[in-house]
Amino acid sequence: MFLKRIGKKLGILAAILLLGYSAFAGSDGSTDYVSPWRDFSCSLPKGWVAFSEKDQMGYVVHILGPDDPTGVYRTGIDIHWFDSSRPGFVPLTKAVEGMRASDSLTGRSSTLLRVVRGADTFARMFEINENRWLPSERLPSIKKHLHSYVAILPRGKSYWIITLSSTRSVYLDYRDTFIDFLRSFNPMGY
Amino acid sequence: MASIFLWNQGAFAALPMDEPLKNPSDAFYNVKADPLPRSVIHLLMDNHYFVHSDGSIWSPSRKEEIRKSQIRVLIRRLKSTERLKAMLKIDLILSENPNGHLTPDELKKVRHILKDVWPFFTIDNRKHFSRYFSKEELYSLNLTPPDEDSDPDLLSQAPLGTPPPPPLPAGFLSQIQTAPQSASAAPLPPQQTFNPIQNSPLVSTPAPFLPQAQAPTLAPVSVPNSELAVPPPAAAPVISQTPLPAPVSIQTASPALPSAQALAVKPSLPPAARVAAVSSPVLGQVAAQAASIVRAPVSSPAAFPAKAVVHAPVPASISSATAKASVEVLNSSATLSQVTVDSIRQALASSSVIGSREYGVSKPKGPTTLPPLKSYSLPSLSVVSPADFEKFLLSAPYSEDPKGLLRLINTDAQEPFRSRALNIVMNLTPAIVIDSDQMGKEAHQKTFLKQNAEGRFEATIAVNPNPILASKREFIFEDWKAMLPVSSSAYQTMGVPVPSVQALDVSARPDKVESGDWGTKTQIYSDGSERGNYSSFEMAGFLLHGLLELEARIEGWSAFPYQEESYAYSAQMLLYAEIKDGAKTADFLDPQLRALFEDWLNHPARFHDFIIHSLASGQNSLWDLRHIGASRRDYFIRKSYVSCPKSLAKEKSLKESESIDSTKKEAMSLARAHFVSEVDFERALNSLDFKATGIEANKKIPSRQDCINYWQKEFMGSNVLDQLMDEAKSAEKNFREKTGAPYVP
User: Fold this and answer.
1) Which residues, 6+ apart, have CB-to-CB distance to B301 below 8 Å?
2) Are A20 and B351 in contact (CB < 8 Å)?
3) ipTM over 0.90
């Protein structure tokens, strides 16, 4: 029985390994994550789920967290890598300008830039507020305030943009989460 | 996850990082001082080791820095793990094709797996799998020298001048020592003790996984063990001088085999081998070999470095791969061999239907075995020419308004979306209704699909022409703006009364009619509510979205709605981009969709993030977090498939519960925005809870066949998702390259 029990557990573990799951839990309940491109690692907040996909500028890792109380927007962190060698690449200063530009259609506005310390480097950080109709494809759809913490981590000419977005009603709950995440964000390689 | 950590640290790495330092002169390893190949650096990172910019390497816990004496053993273990994982993955793909023909997609997957693991393959591995590559490919792949792990000395010998490997943690030793005893103490059923040779089936199957009908032979696997006899290459395996069944067939656990003749267990075999052999002769052999192998080093380390060769006479390729993979595990973690064999068997059983049949592990209860899940490719697209469609429209049974929308799709939609949508129109001729009352809770389009008695699909697409907008002020603080459903059935579902908004009241007269953000001739009522008008350009996008949704439902791709929605969004936005190009403005879109479109056009990253976060939310319920990532999705479906019909009952129950939660949240949104009173909201919650109780009480276990059909459909959908997403990404990329728009975050 003992052997069977152990075997079953290890079987499940083997299956998970088989699927190439690239995260594992630390002692504090947070989960360490290594990007499939092996260029950074970070600690995922407890219970959040990460997945990645390629995009035109390189790749993006989405980390999904808890749902908004009314279930219209799932809080999450998005990590975009903007590779300077890709066509359509926009230099960092222009990118920051573009991101902070206000928009009358969504009431988009941003806070001033400030510098925060990340795990390995300094990050430029600001916040964005805007209004969106949520959900987009279902009714009733309510005009909601969304909030994003944005951090930009340069790496040569390329850069990462890390955003934690949520509805404005809960954004203060995630301030520390975002700062902790930035501190755990560790560009890798040598 | 903590267990994975243990697994990594204990079993695969087998290198306890928290061990006290044995040799104080042992320096830390530094990749800058002693460079490692890039593939090895990646391997370390993949296994959560941290390679810092100063060149130091840290354990996954980040508490221990790796020393020079540890690095060689560590890398060897990790490489072995990589080989095992790759072989298991390939085995899963191959086991789905008992007839031996891989689909192009599967072949691509196998090649991809092999390319990834090629730097870690030994020369034997490379020979074995070289048939999957052309000579040119092999040349470039083989620029990396093969791994030398086949050298048995590596198992026991650390680099010269390094301290001996640290002892295994006490926990592992106690498990190894106690587990076999408990297993052997349990008496085996009488029918399981019989002569393995008599009962072993003699029919071997042709190689199931090769692109050509060519049965591969398994290269001899070198295993260092002085206790093992060295048999001639063609002989049956000899393990501790105990004959085992040969040859071994993948048919051993076929349904035709009576249970009384269940698999062989040789009483003289070690307990671990017996446990494995009960379920699988193939793994039984491996376990038997392993058990003999591992006993020596645990009890007598001196016997470990001696060499012997064990030939695994496995005729079927799947078995070969599995057996070889299992031997790899044993090589990499000898002390855990007993549990590892069991675990591989169970992992395969839970991951693959064929696997469970092949290896004879616990099969799902039921009268018959499950048919294999069939992989599925996106059918080729037949392009519809604009002239042909125009000709079709002339005689099509549509009124002028739907015809106008279809003409816009015909002229302005981008390929491949255009042809996919128009094929549906030409083949199925769905009814197209432009009516807000039909929309239910959908904002823009809704599809209805049913099969008639002859099995023919009958479809309807409803397109919403009028958005209803209302606002409520919460005292002086907040102005709530909402878009409300017109259909009373939407409110019935939520269990709330229809809000007292004049724009929803058909008998109410508007105060004024004027052009605004929400369309020309927007009706504005005295309470501030509005009944807008979507433009025909905008509705063409809704119809295109609906047609693609319909195609997904008919073809069975709708199992994963996030991807389906993303695909349809790409089509819709590309259509609007084309219309904007002609109109030189995006004012034909309402403010909500215009904001989305502008994001898609100018800030694609922002657009995709928004879509993901909103579709993954509770009200949309379009994204099941269990399914994120192709591998998790695949694993989930396979696991559910083998546990039919319970898995479907569980899935349905979960979906119903999610649907009720989602409806509660919709009602809550209305209540928070003061369109519904607190009392009505409380009543709605009670009625929804009552409904949930009713559903729970009437829950039935679905039939096994329904369950099989359900998961097969999900699997089919899962198969084409990535292809669909690639199609959409490629169309977007072409558009952006054509317009040369910068990619502003």
Assistant:
1) none
2) no
3) no
